[in-house]
């Protein structure tokens, strides 16, 4: 093409156009002719070119004409054969068409079957996709009907994630998809309803659960830890039940006490597990945890609220503890078999709150209890309660601290109880030595009280023991108190030394407070006479001696030697000494009261001119009473009897002196002085007769020395000697006080004036009256001098 273009460029313009016309496509001839239409020469060139081409065509036709003629001739020959062939073909075609009609019908049937087969295959494929969905949905409905909700949720999850996306274009799948959220909500509501039923039922039956746990802990030789008794496998969740059931009655438990019960035997926890798993699968695990904890906190507050009458019976306390143990057993079980529903921090916080409430409740209600047996049963319940919860990992040290507070209260109730026992013993005692008729009776007494007396052992039966019946009874009751106090110390997980110390302290309280108070009250009772007081002193002496045996008794039951550094000692010695001193004081008081009673019946004629020549009757009765009384004092320690005798004589002397100096007594005659002197002489004779052995010389007579010197002064009328020797240590009337002498002398002066109406004409009487007045003046001057000196 490039060569032709180069050639065209060398030709003239018309030749180039003609060449283009010949060489280009017929579609481009028009533009070429338009380009060359402008000249005549071009048309000539064009005509010449046409003529040349016509000549070339003619030459070519002439060259091929014979061949063309021959071909036409041959074609005409073939025409007849073609007609025959056409007829044959037409006939063959007709016959073929006739024969193909059945084939066509069969083919169309085959095509129709193939279409049906293809449709069936498509349907089967689609059904194969849909059948698992329908099967899973049917399975879901079945699981819902049998309340296997956790499995139903898993089935829903498979439907949504695996099966439904494959057939989501079908309408029934859309209906399923719309129903699944409704089913989830239904499952949530049902599981929550089951949980509420579970919580309500567990609240009602927590006391039985706790009772079983505490019973298992309290059984002897129990080797299984309580926390192991309620462990179960999560795989054994009972999904077939939607509410808690107690699977065994407690009558069956009594028949099979040796059988260890587990959680499955008591409680169906499946509602909790089911609800937890359902809410976890639904993504609302936190909501469920908060709800569960909130409801359990409310139940804890209800469980911790005691009945107002709980303190009246041990069953009230037992039910209270059983409910609490049941509550925390359930919580501990939930803690170990679930993950996250409750945590150790949550249970510890709940327990600390409960523990504070429990301690406050026990403090309040135990304070109302006055029965030591009930307090002891309460203590045993608290120990079992604490041991049970300690087995589940809850700290219980504060409960044992509380037990020490309750121990003090227990001791107080024991002290009150033993106070009544002591009072009854003292009331029933006859306060006379114990008679023993034979060896057997003697052995019985000795078995109750550690009495030893070699002198008494030498005596033959029958004989009398110095103490009264109350002594061995008191001793036995003190030992019973020690046993009762020891009962509380059991199971407190304390050492023998601590128990020994507690026993000694409680026994000291019994001796120094309770027994001492009972003795003091006994001594002060008005019906207790001198004989009883003497016996009380003898009794306290023997009880004091028995204190060492009580210490040995405590050491034997605690296996702690008394030589231990920290071992406390019993304070019974001081208790019985104080009681003995009180009894001695009461003896002195009652003796003085008895003396006062005799003094009150004294009936002196203070104006008598002469004495009767014999002592007054009341005084002789008094002396006889004192003599018989002091004979009873032979069993008392010597100093006690001597002190009582001296005190009685001194009181008698003071009473007689007060009788002379009584302000209501205005006049005393010399005859009355003489009669009074006779009575004092009898007192001195009594003192000199040694009513109580042990006095040295005239020690007892010195009790009447003031009276004796005063009476001698008036009887002898030795005023000159008194006034001359006054103030000197060697004075004969050293014990006569001037004021006393003055008082008595003025009473005699007034008596002389009254009886001297006609005697004033007698010179001796006038001289005596003047002497009295002179002595009175001198005595007044001595009294005034004493007051100024003071």
Description:
Belongs to the SEC15 family. Component of the exocyst complex involved in the docking of exocytic vesicles with fusion sites on the plasma membrane. The protein has 790 residues and is mostly helical. Helix content is 74%, strand content 1%. It contains 28 helices and 2 strands.
Secondary structure layout plus pairing:
Blueprint: H1 2-10, H2 13-23, H3 29-36, H4 40-145, H5 149-163, H6 171-218, H7 250-255, H8 263-266, H9 270-281, H10 285-304, H11 314-337, H12 344-366, H13 372-391, H14 397-428, E1 434-436, H15 439-448, H16 454-458, E2 463-465, H17 470-489, H18 496-524, H19 530-545, H20 547-558, H21 572-600, H22 617-632, H23 638-661, H24 670-688, H25 705-716, H26 719-725, H27 738-755, H28 763-789
Antiparallel strand pairs: 1-2
Helix pairs in contact: 1-2, 2-3, 4-5, 5-6, 5-9, 6-9, 6-11, 6-13, 9-10, 10-12, 11-13, 12-14, 13-14, 14-17, 14-18, 17-18, 17-19, 18-20, 18-21, 19-21, 21-22, 21-23, 22-24, 24-25, 27-28
């Amino acid at each position: 093409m490039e060569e032709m273009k180069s050639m065209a460029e060398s030709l003239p313009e018309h030749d180039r156009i003609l060449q283009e016309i010949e060489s280009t496509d017929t579609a481009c001839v028009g533009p070429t002719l338009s380009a060359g239409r402008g000249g005549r020469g071009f048309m000539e060139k064009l005509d010449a070119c046409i003529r040349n081409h016509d000549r070339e065509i003619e030459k070519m036709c002439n060259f091929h004409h014979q061949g063309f003629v021959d071909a036409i001739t041959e074609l005409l020959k073939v025409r007849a054969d073609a007609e025959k062939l056409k007829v044959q073909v037409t006939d063959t075609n007709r016959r073929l068409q006739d024969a193909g009609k059945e084939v066509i019908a069969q083919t169309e049937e085959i095509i129709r079957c193939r279409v049906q087969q293809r449709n069936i295959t498509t349907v089967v494929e689609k059904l194969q996709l849909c059948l698992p969905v329908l099967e899973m949905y049917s399975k879901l409905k079945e699981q819902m009907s049998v309340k296997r909700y956790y499995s139903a949720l898993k089935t829903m999850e498979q439907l949504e994630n695996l099966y439904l996306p494959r057939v989501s274009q079908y309408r029934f799948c859309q209906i399923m998809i719309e129903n699944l959220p409704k089913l989830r909500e239904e499952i949530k509501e049902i599981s929550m309803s089951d949980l509420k039923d579970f919580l309500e039922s567990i609240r009602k039956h927590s006391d039985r659960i706790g009772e079983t746990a505490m019973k298992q802990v309290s059984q002897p030789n129990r080797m299984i830890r309580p926390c192991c008794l309620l462990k179960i496998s999560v795989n054994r969740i009972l999904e077939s039940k939607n509410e808690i059931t107690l699977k065994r009655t407690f009558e069956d438990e009594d028949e099979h006490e040796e059988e260890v019960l587990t959680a499955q035997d008591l409680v169906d926890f499946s509602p909790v597990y089911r609800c937890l798993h359902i809410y976890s699968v639904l993504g609302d695990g936190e909501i469920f945890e908060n709800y569960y904890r909130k409801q359990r906190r409310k139940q804890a507050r209800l469980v911790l609220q005691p009945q107002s009458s709980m303190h009246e019976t041990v069953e009230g306390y037992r039910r209270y503890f059983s409910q609490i143990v049941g509550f925390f057993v359930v919580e501990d079980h939930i803690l170990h078999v679930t993950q996250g529903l409750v945590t150790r921090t949550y249970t510890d916080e709940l327990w600390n709150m409960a523990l504070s409430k429990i301690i406050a409740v026990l403090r309040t209600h135990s304070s109302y209890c006055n029965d030591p047996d009930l307090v002891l049963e309460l203590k045993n319940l608290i120990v079992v309660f604490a041991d049970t919860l300690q087995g589940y990992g809850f700290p219980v040290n504060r409960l044992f601290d509380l037990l020490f507070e309750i121990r003090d209260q227990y001791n107080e109730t024991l002290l009150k109880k033993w106070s009544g026992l002591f009072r009854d013993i003292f009331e029933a005692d006859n306060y006379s030595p114990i008679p023993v008729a034979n060896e057997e009776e003697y052995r019985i007494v000795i078995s109750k009280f550690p009495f030893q007396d070699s002198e008494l052992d030498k005596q033959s039966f029958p004989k009398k023991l110095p103490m009264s019946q109350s002594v061995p009874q008191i001793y036995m009751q003190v030992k019973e108190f020690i046993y009762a106090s020891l009962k509380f110390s059991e199971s407190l997980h304390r050492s023998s030394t601590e128990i020994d110390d507690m026993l000694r302290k409680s026994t000291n309280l019994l001796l120094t407070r309770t027994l001492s108070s009972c003795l003091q009250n006994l001594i002060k009772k008005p019906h207790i006479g001198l004989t009883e007081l003497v016996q009380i002193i003898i009794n306290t002496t023997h009880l004091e001696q028995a204190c060492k045996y009580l210490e040995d008794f405590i050491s034997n039951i605690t296996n702690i030697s008394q030589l231990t550094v920290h071992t406390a000692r019993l304070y019974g010695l001081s208790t019985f000494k104080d009681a003995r001193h009180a009894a001695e004081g009461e003896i002195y008081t009652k003796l003085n009261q008895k003396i006062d009673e005799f003094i009150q019946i004294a009936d002196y004629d203070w104006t008598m001119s002469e004495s009767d020549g014999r002592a007054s009757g009341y005084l002789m009765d008094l002396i006889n009473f004192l003599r018989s009384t002091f004979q009873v004092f032979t069993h008392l320690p010597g100093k006690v009897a001597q002190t009582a005798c001296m005190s009685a004589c001194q009181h008698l002397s003071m009473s007689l002196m007060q009788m002379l100096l009584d302000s209501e007594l205005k006049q005393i005659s010399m005859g009355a002085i003489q009669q009074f002197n006779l009575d004092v002489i009898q007192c001195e004779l009594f003192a000199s007769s040694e009513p109580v052995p042990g006095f040295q010389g005239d020690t007892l007579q010195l009790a009447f020395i003031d009276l004796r010197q005063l009476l001698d002064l008036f009887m002898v009328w030795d005023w000159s000697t008194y006034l001359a020797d006054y103030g000197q240590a060697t004075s004969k009337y050293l014990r006569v006080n001037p004021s006393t002498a003055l008082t008595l002398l003025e009473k005699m002066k007034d008596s002389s004036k009254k009886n001297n109406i006609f005697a004033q004409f007698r010179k001796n009487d006038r001289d005596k009256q003047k002497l009295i007045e002179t002595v009175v003046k001198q005595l007044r001057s001595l009294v005034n001098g004493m007051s100024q000196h003071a």
